[in-house]
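Appendix B, Record 12. Input sequence as logged:
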Amino acid sequence: MKHKITALAICILFSYTLFASKYNKREMRAVWVSTLLNLDWPSKSGLSSEEQKSEFIKLLDIFEKNKINTVIIQVRPSGDAIYPSKYAVWSKWLTGTQNIAPDNNFDPLKFIVEECHKRCMEVHAWFNPFRSVYNTEKNPACSSHISNTHPEWIIKYGSNKFLDPGNPKVREYVKDIVCEVVENYDIDAIHFDDYFYPHESKNAFFEDYDSFDKYGGKFYDIKNWRRDNVNKFIELISKSIHSKKSHIKFGISPFPVWRSKTQDPELGVDVQTSSSYDDLCADVLLWVNKGWIDYIMPQLYGNIGNNVLDYTTLIKWWNANCNKANLYIGQAIYKLDANSKNKEWQSSQEIINQLNLNNTYESVKGHSFFRAQYFKTNPLNITEKLNQLNHRYPALLPINKNIPAIIPQKLDFVFLENKNNTHSLTWDNTNADNKYFIIYKYKGLFPHYSAQNIYKITTKKKIIISEKDLKAGYKFCVSSISKTHHESKPTKAFILNS
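Logged structural output:
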């Protein structure tokens, strides 16, 4: 897919239709933020740590305005890292030179997690697990890069270098990299896209034949062996993550087609194109059915009615085949362009129509947009459309059935203060399971946690209610949300009269 070779990314997952937002308040809303080649953040390499912080906060301000609740940030673009690691060198996309740390002991990932959590946004750490060097001529690796310290692990493919997924030591190495982040940072999920084995062409082959001879064992078909390698890797990552921190999710954003009907008449989807199973050696359906991944985010970047990757056909298939994994849909906001050769992408209504279609499928729990830059440039006024319709109300993240529930306690002590026509609610937060808080404003009976009645989502323990927000007869109450996004019972109602 387009983003897998062009960027280090932050992703934000988002949306429901206006109708749904009135009555439901849980959905993932996400945006991808890319770092590789400096497409999203930082805007260019070599910026000071203070400049990088400032740029990221401006991005978060835009996300917050658009009611985004998840940021997917690429932390490992090409065998490197945007955080201090004992397994990988510093990324050149930060400072301009590989293995040179940012100034002032700046840890970008720590900063990102803290700033996102202040805004009640999740952080999903996005890894390219096997890409080692992107474009060897333009981006030569330093001597301490993994491609030079372990050249026996590397396979060159075109202008790029990859870690060999067939080597058990490589799989353990990548597992250690992932676990380092899980252990050291308060992230909310680990995220991979469709980047496992590269898509071979007629003129280029992934030359892992020596590895096949050494590790292939009972396999006669190299594609079956490759799939088995990736299956073992996904299972290893899943078990390793959940053994460290059971509340952290593991998600995959695959190529839109698992297999076509010509490849698998019984389970395949009715489209004719490349597939993740046959061309990328990624058996996503197996991972879902085995419960190894907690969410699936297929990249449905074709328009409705597309003659190759029809959005309607594909979402119907994924809805029927996501099993217990939460299903989020990848949306191609980057294709919106008044000069597009495809007339459907000449209007932001294409995205709105897709989101409305998402909402007709029970298994779809939200969506993500590729990529962050397009919330800054706002092609075809898409953000205005979203805020008028699909993102009119804030949204909490969905509960994931694969993750053991953490049930937060009801807040016992909530205090109402009225001073100088300033009204505030204050509460204690002595329970470590409380991640953030929801303040509701409503009339009549408690409105079943309806999104339209969410007054504020906050990590703070106090909220000021301004005079303009006070109307006679309104009630306010507070509930707490845990790390697994389970919600406590609400407090008693407070009636605030202007």
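Residues 1-23 have pLDDT under 50 and may be disordered.
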